[in-house]
Structures are given as C-alpha cells and as structure tokens.
From TrEMBL:
The keyword Transit peptide does not apply. Keywords: DNA-binding, Transcription, Transcription regulation. PROSITE patterns: HTH_ARSR_2. InterPro entries: ArsR-like_HTH, HTH_ArsR_DNA-bd_dom, HTH_MetalResp_TranReg, WH-like_DNA-bd_sf, WH_DNA-bd_sf. Residues 6-99 form the HTH arsR-type domain. It comes from Amycolatopsis silviterrae. Gene3D superfamilies: Winged helix-like DNA-binding domain superfamily/Winged helix DNA-binding domain. The keyword 4Fe-4S does not apply. This is ArsR/SmtB family transcription factor. Signal peptide: none annotated.
Length: 114
C-alpha cells in the first residue's frame, strides 16, 4: 500500500491549516486527538460515513495537522501538536480552547469500548 505523505513542519501553510480547521468534524477530530494519544480510525465515533471520515482525515493530514500511520489494514492517527506549535505558536491551543467554549466538534467522540 502507498504511504501517506506528510508535509514537513516548515512546509505547513497557515491558510491550509485554517481551512482544514474550518469544518466542525475536523475540529472535533483534533479535539479528540488533543490528548496526545495515537488513535485507530475505528476508535473515532463520527456522525458521517466511513468514506467521509476518510476524506476529513486526509484533509487534516495534508494540512500537517495529523500524522497517519498504517499497520497492515489498520490506520492510526495522531495530532502533530509539537510541529504545529513550532510553526504557528499558540494557534492550535487557541482553536481548541475556542472550540471547547463553543462546543464545536462535540459530536466527535471515542468509541466507548475501543
């Protein structure tokens, strides 16, 4: 299988990051991943079809917000908090804090038994 391309931190563009974080589903995924743990795609409870979730995760990866790792047929995702902090200091925390205050993305959760 083809490996996903992840932009280096210095390749991340502010406009791409902001565009990726302009969707409530993607903000919700970022909120769930903000605990720093790697999550399997199957652990994410998202109110969209699997193909739509795959699209959202690709947008986040292409912008440099997440890193995807494939292991066999399973995919795992992590938030690139350190890279985002280095490239755009304070941006991710500001977005996550505002999203939490406004309940943006609250419908994205972890599967309880994962």
């Amino acid at each position: 299988m083809k490996q996903a391309r992840h932009p280096d931190a210095d390749e991340m563009e502010l406009v791409a990051v902001m565009a990726a974080l302009s969707d409530p589903i993607r903000v919700g995924v970022a909120r769930v991943l903000a605990d720093g743990r790697e999550r399997g795609w199957g652990e994410l409870r998202v109110p969209v079809a699997k193909s739509t979730l795959s699209h959202h995760l690709r947008v986040l990866r292409d912008a440099g917000i997440t890193r995807t790792r494939q292991e066999g047929t399973r995919c795992y995702v992590t938030l690139r908090r350190d890279d985002l902090q280095d490239r755009f200091p304070g941006l991710l925390d500001a977005v996550l804090d505002a999203a939490g205050a406004d309940n943006v993305g609250q419908h994205v959760e972890l599967v309880a038994d994962a």
